[in-house]
Amino acid sequence: MEEIQAGVSEERSNTGIIRAEREDIAADEVQKYMKKKLDEVLGEPFKPRSVTIFRLPAWFYENSKDLSEPKIVSIGPYHHDKESVQTMEENKWSTLRDFLARNKNLGFDVYLREMRLLEGKARERYSETVNLESKDFVMMLLLDGCFILEFLLKLKAEDWLAICSLNWAIESLSSDLCLLENQIPFFVIHKLFEIQNGCSQNCDQGLCPLLNLIYEVMPWPIEEFRFRQAQISCSQIQHLLHLYYTGVLPDNQLGGEQGYMVTGKSCSKPIPCASQLHQAGVIFRRKRSPRDMFDISFHDGIMEIPYIQIDSSLKNYLWNMVGFEQSQRFKLDQILISYVALMSSLICTEMDVAILERSDIISNYLKNDEQVATFFNQTSENYFGLNYTNHYFHGVFKAINEYSETIWIKYRAQLMREYFRDPWTSILVIQAAIILVLTVLQTYYSAAK
Description:
two-stranded parallel sheet, 5 strands, mainly alpha
């Protein structure tokens, strides 16, 4: 009996040991997993990461897929697995071959080595952890960077068939390269161009050959205004969309009379729509010789706005540039969202679009006027953060609201002139009002019985 009890005790002891060993193993696995995750965290403690390439918020991404997802080519990690871009993924290899063939003195290993050196810095630029192994991430940087450069070089040579056999696809390619979620860091592209062409010596003096190439060949969606060269060095440019953003900004980011970042007492609400202002006597005119697309003014009931052609290309660029501005709203001024807020205030329905079209301010190349109204309202609703008391068009908003508030005085004066110019007219108007009130009361009591 004692031997049996001893055996049971020994078995329990062994079971306890096994359980403890298993718990130790499990604890080691948790420790290893947590250490691995901590090691994968990018950046340094207490230092913000230099994130420049963001995902759009999911809560409105579903309503803007056509403006947010690449149609032909994926750049960067966010959309590389989409079915629609797989054909171009295969074509990137022939594009890489063409790019490498431009300088036969350099081996493939030179480019690859530089991309390996940039991997950590490039990963930090993405707002989400990129779940690609090191070899796949480095390969993506090389393929996508060389694709962009080869696309630019073939545009310059007007080698259309070498770019794509479908002419319509070239415009889509250009648009895809400027999507908010479809980017790689500019320093990756610059390094590849530098390796092949040696352009680093004068870049900080604004003489970057790569920037000159981009300015020369990349299509600009707002044809009415010249693409402005960036007032920052190429080392400060975050990606191609950022470069486009700097190209649309007004000189020195300052407007005219509207006055950016005005402080003090100001308007605190949006303005009436174009049809309401039109009924109130406001005249809309196309601005002649505007400085830029933001050169909007309001004086004595006359609103002048620069001409703009609204098509699918403009929608794409404007949506993504506003998204970029909002993604860094604590670092950048709210110039584009101010413009969208102004236009969405003016354009609520297709009736408002028609008024601006008749005034030669808008040319609509979308299917109908309703699509224009929907675009501006959708863009304004999805992007947030505009302070109506302190923004780029503060002066315009303030002047329009003050004008609107005085309209009733004008109507009252008109009423006094037309209906109360003599005693007999006044008596007739009052009599008619009394009859109307009595009729309404009689109808009400009859219905109540």
